[in-house]
Each structure stands twice: as structure tokens, then as C-alpha cells.
Amino acid sequence: MVSERLVANAGYVAEFLALIGSEKRLLMLIHLAEGELSVGDLAMRVGLSQSALSQHLARLLRLDIVARRRERQNVYYSCKSKLAREILDLLAGLVATDKLPSSRLQKYDEGARRFEAA
């Protein structure tokens, strides 16, 4: 049975999923769900320049997925979306229980190890 609320909110849900469908934005949310980070720290963790990161953050801000806080000259971001946190928990559970194709996961695990070693 299809949820009427899901049907009524399909546009927002599709836009939300498209935003977190980007590998870099997904990584950003994973790190921001762990706690507030400065732009510089977040850029370093996801491997983006601060200007590229700012463009991604602007899109996440537009949908009210992240929060921004300014302290003197520093800007800090955090994940404020309960929906984003729940989706991250769901994805973590799927990965942990091998419900995603293992051949794809292996490929990404190897790529992540190469990136961390660099």
C-alpha cells in the first residue's frame, strides 16, 4: 500500500534524495551527523576545496538539511534534519547487514583505503 503522505510529498522527497545521492554531499552529511564542523575541517574530511564545499552546503541549506552557525570569523555546520539522520542510520544498517551488493561495496572499500593512504 502506498502512503498518501509520501505521494503528497513526492517532490520534496525526490529533491532530498537527489541531494544526498551525491557522494560528496552524502559524505558531508555523514560527518556532520557526528557533530558540528568548521568549513575547513569538513572540506578536509570530504576532499573538496572550500569553494566547492560551499556550493554543496548552499544546496543543503536551501532544503534545511544542515544548520549554519557563525562564530567570529569561523562558520560551523551541523546536520539538523531528522530525516537525513534516519536515512544515514538506515544506510549504515544496510551496509552492516550486507543488504547491498557486496561486489559494489568491495570496490568502494578499496577506493576508500587508497584515498586514506594518500
UniProtKB/TrEMBL annotation:
Pfam family, one: HTH_5
InterPro entries assigned: ArsR-like_HTH, HTH_ArsR_DNA-bd_dom, Metal_resp_trans_reg, WH-like_DNA-bd_sf, WH_DNA-bd_sf
Domain HTH arsR-type: 6-99
One Gene Ontology term of the molecular function aspect: DNA binding
SUPFAM superfamilies: Winged helix' DNA-binding domain
Gene3D superfamilies tied to this protein: Winged helix-like DNA-binding domain superfamily/Winged helix DNA-binding domain
Keyword Nucleus recorded: no
Keywords (A to Z) from UniProt: DNA-binding, Transcription, Transcription regulation
PANTHER family: ARSENICAL RESISTANCE OPERON REPRESSOR ARSR-RELATED
Record's protein name: DNA-binding HxlR family transcriptional regulator
